[in-house]
Amino acid sequence: MGKQGKRFLKLLTCLGMISMVIGVTPAFAATPGSVIFQSGFESGSTLSQLDAQDDDITGTDTSYSTKNNWVTDLEGNAQIGTFKIQYEGGAATDRYASIITDPAYSGNKVLHYWLKNAAIQDNGFMKGRIQTSIYDEPGNPQQSLNEMYYKVRLKLHPDMQKLESFSNAIPWLTLAEFWNDPTWTGSSYPFRITFGLNKDANAGSNQPLYFSVSSENMDNNTRVEVWRSDAKSFTVTYNQWITLEFYYKKGDATTGRFYVAATPSGGSRQILFDVKNWTYNTNNPSPVGLANFNPMKLYTGEEYIDHIRNNGGIMQLYWDNFELWNGWPQAVYQAESMTLGTTSGETLTNSSDVNCSGGVCQIFDSNGVGDYINYYANVPHDGKYDIKVGVKKMNTRGKFQMSIDGANIGTIQDLYAASAQYTELSIANNVQLAAGDRRFKFYVTGTSGTGYQLGIDYIKIIPKD
């Protein structure tokens, strides 16, 4: 399957449960965002060396049609600083990142991390690092992100399983890191969030790894843990793609949020972490947002790197399908592209119109009360959503009641207007939806004129938590 077939919003068909909850939006609720950049590391993405310890990726990724240029879309965005791949120490014989053909599928390209030797000396301790960095650097300053979401696929090479035979604890093998006022900028209030793989002390050999996330105040280089959470119930797999979703919201103990979900290939989406707590230093009187982060990282100590190598392997990861947003993705479903369910039998036509989103509105040629049309739209995750519908009003239009999976939401909407009007209707707020495909039904209830037609442009669902 090509990259276009693996895009974020896939239109399938299934049924599910829905309920409606009305209430005040919590302070930690996510704000709808827009895509900043996306790449599948496909044709047009070129990895090249900047210097002995840094690489770069440039070009336009042809697997996406928009927001796909590594320089103009990613680094050129005012909220993003400089992108690079960093190593800190060693040579290509010790570590490298490269864009390669997916070993399991020749039609796909991936970003490959290969870490053979720990080549960075740190106070008598050796470590290894490969990381993509999005940093606020001189010459390309950024406006910090108060909210950020990204999605990326991760595959652990089978050699990574050799860590299960390591006899002691593995307290840090970092896969992503997020900094607020980082130590290297001279800030008085550095703070970081670390996501990675761990293994418990005294677990012994042949024990599983698990995902973990923690945060730390780093005042005066003294680490003080603020919060921590482990996902021991999630099975870490090898040689299998896992889609990871990360969400960060700047805030204190009542407004901050850090969220991670994981979807194994062919499996169900699971929320690993939904931490509602500090996401900046607890002592910081005027914190900035997220100005420095490593969305794809491999960083750990020599004993873990050596253990894999001494047992006939190399520490390796694969990354794919990176998508970055400046808030939680909102889903917009164009009527003409949605999966159509049952109807009452009346004609449905695509009407070209430059004033409609995507240049097309769908006209449902209803002729009386009781006519209906069903669409299916894929909801990306469990949660509360505001529901909106883009419509084209006219003097031939009728009224409709919307329902989702059989439950009415909102009030009856009137599409009558003396002349053409293009508008977005607010149907209902804080509707609890389950992840998966939901059935959106438009049921004709009457008319304010003489016609009963419906002019439907799109359905929009906006996350609220």
From TrEMBL:
Gene3D superfamilies (UniProt xref): 2.60.120.200, Galactose-binding domain-like (2.60.120.260)
Region forming the signal peptide: 1-29
Keyword tags: Signal
Gene Ontology molecular function, alphabetical: carbohydrate binding
Entry-linked PROSITE patterns: CBM6 (PS51175)
Residue ranges of domain CBM6 in the record: 331-462
Taxonomic superkingdom: Bacteria
Name of this protein: Carbohydrate-binding protein
Organism of this sequence: Paenibacillus whitsoniae
Taxonomy of the source species: Bacteria, Bacillati, Bacillota, Bacilli, Bacillales
